[in-house]
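user: Kindly work through both lines:
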Amino acid sequence: MRHCQHLTGKKHRHYQHLTSQKQRHNQPLASQKQIHFQHVTSQKQRHYQYSTRQKQGHFQHLTSQKQRHDQHSTSHRQRHYQHSTSQKQRHVKYLTSKKQIH
């Protein structure tokens, strides 16, 4: 009986020692995790800000390109339309003059 009590006492003391070690070990880990988490989130935010800035720049670039393209295409269309109408008029004049000759 005494032997059994002696063993349990030893076990109990050993268990207390282990748990205190575990707690001590857990604290630095938790603080490390927090620091790592803060670091990661700040990196993410920095990356997000950078990517959005890039996207905005890219978007502005695209829209300006589109506008330039639109202006170019409309002016080209107008020029083409003017050219075709002038050709038509010339052709009509040519036809009417031919008719008159006949």
